[in-house]
Every structure is written in C-alpha cells, then in structure tokens.
Amino acid sequence: MRYYYKLLKKFFSLGATDKHLMRNLFITAGLRTGAYLLVPCAAAMIVDSATDGDYTMALVNTGFFAVSAFLYTLFHHMNYKSYADNAMYIHDELQRKILDKVVTFNQDFTKNISQAEIINTAFEDVTMNQRIPDYFFDLITNFISIVADVIIMIFVDPLIGGITFGLTMCAMAVFIYHMKRRDHYTALHREDQDDIAGLYSQMIDGHKEVHTFNMEENLKDILEDNKKDWKRNFFRKRLHSDLGESLTPFLLGSARVISYFIAAGLILKGEYNIATLVLIIGYFDNMQQSYDGVTDIILNITKSSVAIERVYKLLNYKSPRKQKFGTNDTDDIAGKVQFSNVSFTYGRKPQMRKVSFVLYPGSLTGIVGKSGSGKSTIFRLLLRLYKPTRGKILIDGKNIRDYTKEVYASNVSIVTQKPFVFDMSIRENLNMVDSNHEHQIEACKMVGIHDVIMKLSKGYDTILVSDATNLSAGQKQLLALARTLLSKAEILLFDEVTSTLDASTTKQVIGILKKLKKDHTVLVITHKPEVMRQMDELLVIDNGHLVGRGTHKNLLNNKYYKLLQK
Known about the structure:
Shape: elongated
Number of domains: 2
Order of helices and strands: HHHHHHHHHEEEHEEHEHHHHEHEHEEH
Distance between the termini: 71 Å
Strand order of the largest sheet: 6-7-8-3-9-10
CATH topology of the largest domain: ABC transporter transmembrane region fold
CATH superfamily of the largest domain: ABC transporter type 1, transmembrane domain
C-alpha cells in the first residue's frame, strides 16, 4: 500500500488533474460498483421465491434484478464518460507542461536527458499517465467490492468466507510481489529502449559522417550490445509477469473448488437450499471478477509506474546553470550592450577572461576569431543560456538578469547558421512570432524573400517539408531573417549566417544587415573576410580574450586579425 500511495502522490504532484473531473470519476466508479453488488442478491431472491412457489414475489424480484442491471449499465456508461473527459484533460496538461519545461532547457540538457527519452515521454508515457486516476479509483472500488463479497459470504457461512478470504489475500500478495519485480525490469527495459532510439537518432543526424568514416560495423556492434541488454531485461520482466498471472488463478481456483465442495455437502445434509448456493456462487463470481479487475489494474499500474517516474523526472529536471529571471518589465529598450569584465568558466575550462566592450544602437559589429576562441560564448551569455562566472552584462545600463523572461526574449533575437523551421506552412512558421499577415509580408519584402514565396505553388500557405528542403539554403536563411524581424527585437545576433551561402546571397544578406543597423544593435559572428570588411567595427577574440577592436582597415596590423584574412 505504501508503494501505491507514493506512486499516487507522485502522480498528483505533477499538477495535471482537475478536481471536478476527478470527483465525477470517483463517484461514478462507486455507483457502478454499488449497482454491481445488487445483482447476485437479486438473482438469489428470484431463485428463493421461485423455489417457494411465490411467483408474484419472483416476478417482483425479477424487476429488482432488471433495475439493478440497468443501473449498473447506466453508471458504467457515466463512468466511462468521466474517464474520457479526465483522460483528455490529463493528456493535454502533461503535454503542455512538458513543452513548457523543454523550452527552459539550456543547450547542455542532452548530457543528462536524451532527446529520444523526451520524445518517448511526451507521447507514450503521457498516454499511459492519463489513465492513472481511473486505475486507482477502479482499484479502490474493486477492492471494496471484494471486501463486501467476502463479508456477505462470511455472513452466509464463516468457513467458506474465511477460506475464500485467506486464499484471495495469498493470491493478491503473490501477484503484487511479481508485479513489483516486473516493474523494476520494465524500467530497465525502457532505459535500454531509449539508448537504442538515441543511437538511431544519432546515426540519422550523422549519416554523412557514418558513411565517410565507414562507421557502420562499429555502430552495429554498439547496437547489438544495447539489444542484448534490451532482450535480457525484456525476458526478466516477462518471467515475473507470467509467474504473477499464472499462480494467482491456481490459488483462486482452489478457493472456488473448496467453497463449492463445502456448499454441496451442506445442501446434501439439508442445511442449505438452492437459493443459498446461488447466492454463494453469485458473490464468489462477483469477487472473482473484482479480483481479476484488481490484478489487471495492478498490472497496468506497474506498467504505468515507469511512465509516472519518467514524466516526473522530466518535469522536475533542473537545468544546470539555469538562470532566474528578474522582475524588470520595462520594454522600452534602446539596445545598448555592455560587457564589463566578463569571465566565464565551463566546467574547469575558462571560456572567457575579463572581456569588456560597449556596443550602441545603430551599429553593425562583427565578432571574429578562430574556431573555439570564444565567439559563440558571447552569444550564449547574451541569450542568458549561461551565467557569467564574474563580471556583468548590461543592456541599457541594467543587468540582463534583472529583465523578465518576456521582455528579454522580445528584445534579443538570434539567427543561426542552420536556422530551424517547422514542417508546416510558411505562414504558420511566421505566425509563431507574429500572426499579422501584413507584418509578415512587410518583413519578407524587406529581406527579399516575398517574391520567391509568391512564386511557390501556394504562396505563404506552402508547406515546408523535411526542414524546408523545398527552399534553397539562401532562401531558408532569408526566411529566418524575416522571422527575426517580426520579433521586433532591438538587439539582433547573427551566428555565421553566411557560412553556407553563395557570393550573391551573401552580398544580399550583408545589404540587409546594413539596413537593419539603422534601428537595431546588430552583432555578427563570421569567418568570411568579405563580411568582416563590411562591419562598422570588429571585436577580435582569441582564447577567451578580447585581443583587438576596430575597423577592418585599422586591424590589418593586428597579428590575430591578419591570420583570419587567409
């Protein structure tokens, strides 16, 4: 009972239930069970009246039987309706909570929780969680039904009732033990499944490297090792499941045979009549069905316990270096950016050392340096993905940690080297930032993608499939630029946005950046010399240090900058 209490407590701590829906589910389950208990009694009363030759009372009791059966059917339907409403509510709430949680994760979350686990949890485990209240209420009502059946049988015959109760409790104890062991191996089995799914996901993402470096055989060996663990835990969970499901029918069957043998002997002695036998058989069958219901529910709960644990783990996952948001909701941000002696250490390795600079609105600034020099760290710190180890980052003279999440997100935006778009229409992708179609057209015209969109089969309603493969890399980048403009952010970050573009599209993007600087603060990470030459100012980063600052012309004698021009 402690085990199931803790499990139920953990489920309710997820905060995905509605009190009104839960109350309806419990009440209808109780009414259904109450009506069900009346049926054997009504059947015995019919036999008793008919045996005594009182056909009028037998007819009355037949009516009582019909009413009991009707009420059971009615309450069963009401309970199913309550379950459906409750299940849909829980499903929607858990998926919403998981989505809200995932968007708070920093870039390192996959070191502690895999993408495959998140996807499986958001769908398979959420679906299993939606039935938890129904399982528990059915467990309670079925257990009450078993107790009521046993009490009635003890009242009719203490020996039969005692034997039935004793063997039933033994059967339940055996069943619960094996289901708990099954639960343990199910959890291990699901972890093995996540490992296999994660390996497949990585193989798909890195298929070019897999073929280039001939990794197929090594990956197959790793997959086989994972499958061995998967198979071993699968067979262990099946063993305990089979033992639990095979031993309990034997114990209950023994109780049935002994009870019927005793009842038959008492009838032969003249101490029982047929109506009493019908009553015992009816309530024993009733108890058998309730017990079968309990074992099925326990089986489902043990299966679902893994799902509860996985959803609980995800919703209570604490992102390392997760920052708290402030209370400053001032949205009138001009865009002045200041790094003041900022240092940042990741693990034990310093990534940035006492970097200071100030950028003003209306500026186009390039951040340059060799790979691993710390360029991307500046962006990650600005996006509040990381917290500085020392120093401060200010926007308009206020610490970036003081702003609310909503204000900061609406004023600092980024376009990456490989911008992500959803497999939905262009309009729907843009709707996620600004649903005003006129604003969308204006932004797309500004970046030069509007005419391209209008030539597509369905214009803005064209579906972007497989990460927008029906657009060129340059067109996808321009669409990402348009999406960024719709955010109305004052500070725009561009991370290697021209790295995969041809010369013509690169020139087009540079022209857009120069237009944007008129009313934005624009920062660009780039490794292309032709892009560096177009910047108003350049920040040269090397090994986490700011080692140069100025225009392209002024920096030509800087030894670090000169190396980047080759």
